[in-house]
Design goal:
64% helix, two-stranded parallel sheet, 1% strand, mainly alpha, 449 residues, globular
Length: 449
């Protein structure tokens, strides 16, 4: 088999696995929050600045970081055009992977090692591009940002990078992850300075991109809200658990084991990265720390791994393989850890493949009910919804926070709901604490009114 044919076969295999990882039609509960907001915008009532869905006290003004996502998603979901939303999600996932490979190649990695970087992290795409969450924009835009920055590093003309200002204009209105994108620009500037190169182009881009993020319906308040959300996430939301806390509560899920293995590989290559690639070292360290403290940030670390480690692995392998055998213990250890990462991939696909095959059309969106018990990680109370509709019930509804957006989508304005997963972006601290105390029967719950 010619080498080119081998690469074509390897690329087809990796992209096929990526497609399986992205194949998911289970609606995430937060999606209903987006389309509820979008419905209010499209109804012609003006921009929503006060939460109309809950009967509990809410923040004023309501700053909804993902307002543009809701505006974009609503007409397709309301028009039963699930295939558009799902098609966009698959396209975003594949485009993200392609940008990561190209960025790795711009750093000097060969196509094979760039592809290996994606092969190591395929399961992470299933978490990064869930149906259908606004944070998928952040992961796609992160890949685009790094791709452009790597072009600058490789000698592209600075004027080719000013399109980033437009990217950040959209990013700031579609998801709060834009703040991390600005941090990446700052890390590129710092890494350039540490490597003896001028950071001026990155600092100019940082200033321009920061300025355009103020073009949003909330102005500077968006920044204040995003920073508050990042600094004080709700401790009861599992996505904000630390890596160690998640392992202790839920056990060793494949993608969390994968984080540990990828971090080990980065640790083995840290000395070489310090000598040859201080930008990559800074971004990897920042994203690894973010993931260690909050598991929801794993895709940022995994995608950084796919960009910055392939070149380091290729250089290390070439220098350590002058003859017929491996002569560098670090390379041997890295190869064994990579084999472990591939094993994690197999465990992941063995777990998800049966559900993937039996879930129906990959271009549909599904809110499964209790008759699908055992097949999905969570279910929707479709029977309770039908009972409420059939009996024309109205008033206030207290239920599990993951179902609130779902009920609002189907029952608002006849029914108002209590507390949902928007948590600190909508509800004051006292309300959040009372909800968790009452709903989970924590000490003192009986004295709440």
């Amino acid at each position: 088999m010619r080498f080119g044919a081998f690469y074509a076969f390897a690329a087809a295999a990796v992209w096929g696995l990526l497609g399986l990882a992205l194949w998911n039609n289970l609606i995430e509960p937060d999606f209903f929050g987006y389309v509820n907001f979008g419905r209010e915008l499209w109804s012609g009532q003006g921009f929503v600045r006060h939460d109309p869905f809950s009967y509990l006290p809410t923040a004023s003004p309501w700053i909804f970081h993902e307002w543009l996502a809701g505006f974009l998603f609503y007409p397709f979901f309301a028009g039963n055009m699930d295939w558009v939303l799902q098609g966009f999600r698959y396209a975003a996932g594949f485009l993200c992977a392609a940008l990561l490979v190209k960025a790795a190649m711009r750093r000097g990695a060969g196509f094979g090692f760039g592809l290996l970087g994606i092969a190591c992290i395929v399961p992470v795409f299933s978490e990064a591009f869930l149906p259908i969450l606004a944070r998928g924009f952040s992961y796609l835009f992160f890949a685009a940002l790094v791709f452009v920055c790597e072009g600058l590093r490789a000698g592209d003309r600075p004027k080719n990078a000013w399109g980033l200002a437009g990217l950040f204009l959209v990013w700031a209105n579609v998801h709060g992850g834009f703040a991390f994108g600005l941090a990446v620009l700052a890390l590129y500037g710092a890494g350039s300075a540490l490597s003896g190169r001028s950071p001026a182009v990155y600092l100019k881009l940082l200033a321009a991109c920061t300025a355009v993020t103020l073009i949003n319906p909330y102005g500077w308040r968006l920044w204040a809200s995003v920073l508050f959300h990042a600094a004080s996430p709700d401790p009861f939301i599992w996505e904000w658990f630390s890596w160690l806390q998640s392992i202790s509560i839920f056990g060793p899920r494949p993608i969390w084991v994968l984080f540990f293995l990828l971090a080990l590989i980065c640790l083995l290559g840290s000395a070489q990265l310090w000598r040859t690639d201080r930008i990559g070292l800074l971004v990897l360290a920042a994203t690894a720390a973010m993931t260690f403290f909050h598991v929801r940030h794993l895709p940022f670390f995994a995608f950084a791994f796919a960009v910055y480690m392939p070149c380091a692995m290729e250089l290390r392998a070439k220098r350590a393989w002058p003859g017929p055998g491996l002569k560098d213990a670090a390379v041997l250890a890295g190869a064994l850890i990579l084999a472990g990462a591939m094993l994690v991939n197999l465990v992941f696909f063995r777990a998800v493949l049966p559900q993937t095959i039996s879930s129906g059309s990959p271009f549909a969106l599904k809110a499964p009910g209790w008759d699908d018990a055992g097949r999905y990680k969570y279910l929707y109370p479709n029977g309770a919804l039908e009972f409420i509709k059939k009996n024309n019930l109205q008033g206030n509804l207290l239920c599990d926070m993951i179902w609130v957006g779902y009920f609002s989508w189907h029952l608002y304005p006849k029914v108002k709901v209590a507390f949902d997963s928007r948590t600190e972006s909508v509800f004051p601290a006292a309300v959040r604490q009372e909800y968790f105390r009452f709903y989970w029967v924590r000490p003192g719950w009986g004295g709440l009114s």
